Amino acid sequence: MSALLRPVTDEDARRAAAIASWLDGYESATSRRSMASALRAIARTYQGLGPRDPVDVNLFAWEALDSVDFFGEVRRRLIERYGREHSAKYLLAMRSLLRHLAARGVADFEYAMQVLEFMKVSRLTSDPPPLNFTSGDLFRILQVCRYDASATAGLRDLAMISLAATTGARRHELVSVVMSELDLGRGQVELHVKGGGRRFAVLHSAAADHLERWLEARGDVDGPLFPALRRGGHITETAVSDHQFWKVLRRRCEEAGVDPVIAPHDLRRWFVTSLLESGVDVFQVARLVGHTRVQTTIRYDRRPVGRLREVVEQLSVPLFADLELIDKPPVVPESVPEGRLRPGPSSTRETQQMAWRASHPDVRQGVLGRERG
Question: How far is 346 from 358, CA to CA, in rounded Å?
Fold first, then answer.
C-alpha cells in the first residue's frame, strides 16, 4: 500500500493538528500558503520526489527532526537540490515547525532544543547577485502589452505591471487592490501590506496614465482593480491571484524576449535598486516599499560591485605623489632675466599636484614641513 493510502493513525492526527495550528499562527493567507508550500518542498526533497509529485505533509514524520542526524540529512538534501541560498527559507520553516511541535509535545522538547541550538541556519554574508533586469527590459515588456492582440488583456497587464514596477508592491498587495482603494485624483493607492497592515503608495505619472486607460476598458464598477479575464477578454468579478500574476509576468517576459525571465519580486528589487542608484535616501526608499527596518531594504540593493567602486572613487583622497611639498622656491634658468614671469610647472605630475591643491583650498601647502620645523 502506498504512503498516501495507508491508514491514518492517532500519531498522524496529532501531527496534522499541530501543523494546522502552526500554519494558523501566520496572520496573512499568503504567508500560510508560502509555509505550506515549503513543507511540501521539504517532504518531496527528502523522499526524492519531483516538484509536482503529490505529497501529504501530514504523513511526513516531522517530529523526527528532533534528531540531529535526521535534521542534518534533510538539510543536506535541501542544499543539494536548491543550493545554500534558496534552501535557507526551507530550513527556517523546519526550525519554526520543530519548535512548535516541541511546544505541543509532538516532538521531544529537550532534544528539539538541542537540535535548534546545534543546527542553526547561517546567514549568508556574501553580496547578493546583481539583478539582470534593466529599464530597457521593462520598456519591452510594457510595449508588448500595449500591442497585444487582445486590447483588454493588454491594457490590464500594462497597468498591472507598471503599477508593480513603480510602487515596489508585493504581488499579493497588488492583486488585493479594489477600486475604492485607488485614488487617481490624489495620485495614490492603498495597499494591504504583509502582516495585515496598510500603506499608501504614490502613483508614478506613467502608471497613472496606464491605469486611466485600463479603467476606460474595465469601467468604474466596484470590485477588484485587476480582475481575471475569460476567453475573448471578458472581465470577471474575481481578482487575479498572485500566482496568475506570476504567470502573466512570465508570459510577457517571453513575448518581449527578456532573458532571464523575472519573477514579480524582481520588480520590487528593481524599484529599490533604481531609486538607490538615483541617489534617493535609503530611509525614503524603505518608507516607499513599506519596510519597517532599513536593513531589509539594503538586502534589496542589487547594484553590481563595479558601480559601488565608482561611488567610492568619488571620495577626494590625494595620491602619494599629491602629498609632495611643492612650495619650494622655483629654479629660474639663467637665460630668464630677473623680473620676468615665473615659469610654469616643469612636468605633468606637478600640473596635477597644482590642480589638486587648487581644488582643495582648505589644504595648506607645505604645512607638514612647517610643523616639523
Answer: 17
